[in-house]
């Protein structure tokens, strides 16, 4: 059955609602020198259970192009020394401001249900809104947005809404994207 896609946004940094602390200590780090191999690992480890396929055919050059985009950021959560999930920020300058897309977000399935996802998402949204501090050459952030689908984890949409995102568009199966 084709998936329904839901687009969500925040247009004010005050919309962010932080999650409670996860059950175990979690460290979230920005990966400065992202490699195609680590990117492919994260994408597969997180997205495999949800049939993420868009990047499966990417070449090393395509991965390097993605991570080499000005402003592109990857944030990885670690618990007990293991990567538990990741979040990617992709900025888009637009009409005197910057739109920051959360291009990918998710957890390795074995870590779902421990509060790590809400924490990683909260930190990621905060990093999106504070993007200009790290990238002063970009205009101020006007909007943080993402999309999810009914093929993603069933807790994804409720987590996004709990963090203060508002739905602004949906696409039903068969109506085009």
UniProtKB/TrEMBL annotation:
The molecular function terms in GO held by this entry are: acyltransferase activity, transferring groups other than amino-acyl groups
Print the organism lineage: Bacteria, Bacillati, Actinomycetota, Actinomycetes, Nakamurellales
Query: CDD domains attached here?
Result: NAT_SF (cd04301)
The protein's superkingdom reads Bacteria
The residue ranges of the N-acetyltransferase domain are 29-177
Q: Does the keyword Transferase apply?
A: yes
- Which InterPro entries does this UniProt record tie to the protein? Acyl_CoA_acyltransferase, GNAT_dom
Report the source organism. Answer: Nakamurella antarctica
Q: Which PROSITE patterns match?
A: GNAT
This one is known as GNAT family N-acetyltransferase
- Record keywords: Transferase
